[in-house]
Design the sequence.
């Protein structure tokens, strides 16, 4: 799974019920700082993840603060959770290997927790 | 808080966004940008991505290859029967590829911009006819590379019939019935046997076309 897909999945996971285009965009910007992110790139990735069955989406009710338009809310599916877990595990192993080689003090072991 | 963009601008921008993504994208653009200038700036940067994503979602590589081969074959055969001289021209096969290229591009955009909520019965014919109309129009811009009118009419007619039949037999992804919320990727797996072979098939098809064009150019002189 590409790094950007991992960022988008992580953003959806952390936003829970409020994951839609703008909030995902802002969260991914935060996660990938200082790299800039385009809103369009988020849409392309969300569509690709939906095609792969990793996320699903539905339209919310129209909101006045959005000019009377609905939000497309995204939800992480089991396949996406599994893929994200595997990516996180790989990232942890990389971190372990790096810290072992550089001899830096290791951070406390990271235990990813699934959302309830 | 900055004023919302005027309704006419929102409508104009909305018209550029494929219907399937219009509602959510317009809402996001509205939320992310306060004033009219910011709204237009964000739309200018974002819409190409939305269209591209929609093109990817509604295009099936195998079906596109079939459409491309069908259209190109129509033009080559019409050229062989009506204007054989074009096949002796060093740039003949490239000239014959221009109208199919325009039609293919139009089909991709027509599928991307199709409204998933509406399924007019003439949709399989609409894309090829529009594409062929644009292909005729594009001939004005090709100058000396333009094809003879008779060839365009015959090849165009044959292409419309064949591609429309193909699109009725294998409908575009946006038109396939969704009985459950099946991801588009899984729908594409309907043709899994072909998909595994898609890349080698494309390479073989290109090599065969190059060899065929070389053979025809050398032996028909």
Sequence:
């Amino acid at each position: 799974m590409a790094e950007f897909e991992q960022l988008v999945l992580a953003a959806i996971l952390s936003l829970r019920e409020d994951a839609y285009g703008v909030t995902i965009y802002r969260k991914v910007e935060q996660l990938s700082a200082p790299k800039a992110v385009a809103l369009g790139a988020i849409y392309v990735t969300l569509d690709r993840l939906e095609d792969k069955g990793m996320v699903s989406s539905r339209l919310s009710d129209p909101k006045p603060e959005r000019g009377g338009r609905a939000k497309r809310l995204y939800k992480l599916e089991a396949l996406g959770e599994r893929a994200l877990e595997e990516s996180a595990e790989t990232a942890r192993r990389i971190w372990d290997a790096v810290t072992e080689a550089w001899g830096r003090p290791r951070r406390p072991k990271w235990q990813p927790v699934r959302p309830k | 808080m900055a004023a919302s963009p005027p309704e006419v601008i929102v409508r104009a921008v909305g018209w550029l966004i494929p219907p399937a993504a219009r509602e959510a994208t317009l809402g996001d653009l509205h939320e992310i940008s306060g004033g009219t200038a910011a709204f237009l700036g964000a739309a200018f940067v974002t819409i190409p991505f939305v269209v591209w994503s929609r093109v990817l979602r509604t295009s099936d590589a195998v079906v596109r290859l079939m459409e491309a081969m069908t259209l190109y074959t129509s033009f080559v055969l019409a050229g062989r029967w009506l204007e054989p001289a074009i096949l002796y021209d060093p740039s003949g096969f490239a000239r014959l590829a221009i109208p199919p290229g325009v039609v293919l591009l139009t089909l991709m955009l027509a599928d991307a911009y199709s409204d998933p909520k509406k399924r007019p019965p003439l949709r399989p014919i609409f894309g090829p006819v529009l594409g062929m109309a644009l292909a005729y129009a594009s001939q004005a811009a090709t100058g000396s590379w333009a094809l003879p009118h008779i060839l365009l009419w015959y090849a165009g007619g044959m292409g419309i019939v064949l591609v429309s039949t193909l699109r009725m037999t294998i409908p575009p992804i946006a038109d396939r019935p969704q009985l459950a919320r099946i991801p588009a990727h899984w729908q594409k797996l309907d043709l899994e046997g072909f998909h595994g072979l898609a890349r080698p098939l494309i390479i073989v098809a290109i090599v065969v076309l190059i060899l065929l064009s070389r053979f025809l150019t050398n032996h028909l002189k």
Summary: Chain B has a mean pLDDT of 83. Chain B is about 75% helix and 0% strand.
